[in-house]
């Protein structure tokens, strides 16, 4: 995943960074996501993509790929095995869309 779409001005980049480092903000996000999103100067597209867990849309809007994976982990939790957590699966499924099942079959999973 390249930086073709990365937009450093996209405010979701700031939100995810702050969620990573601010435990209180992360707790508020877990209990009152809409309230946290309302406090940030996000576009309607950003808010909708976060609420819908549409990682593909967030990538297209310009969320940095690293922060995209961090947001998936923050939302879905982390797993012990790299690439097999609910977060990784949700991210891959969102990015691949209809190609997800084919991708998994090719991997033998």
TrEMBL record:
Domain of life from the UniProt record: Bacteria
Pfam families: LigA
Keyword Transferase listed: no
InterPro entries with a match to the protein in the record: LigA_sf (IPR036622), Xdiol_dOase_LigA (IPR011986)
Domain Extradiol ring-cleavage dioxygenase LigAB LigA subunit as annotated: residue spans: 13-82
Record key words, sorted: Dioxygenase, Oxidoreductase
GO terms assigned for molecular function: dioxygenase activity
Gene3D superfamilies on file: Dioxygenase LigAB, LigA subunit (1.10.700.10)
Protein name: Extradiol ring-cleavage dioxygenase
Organism: Streptomyces chisholmiae
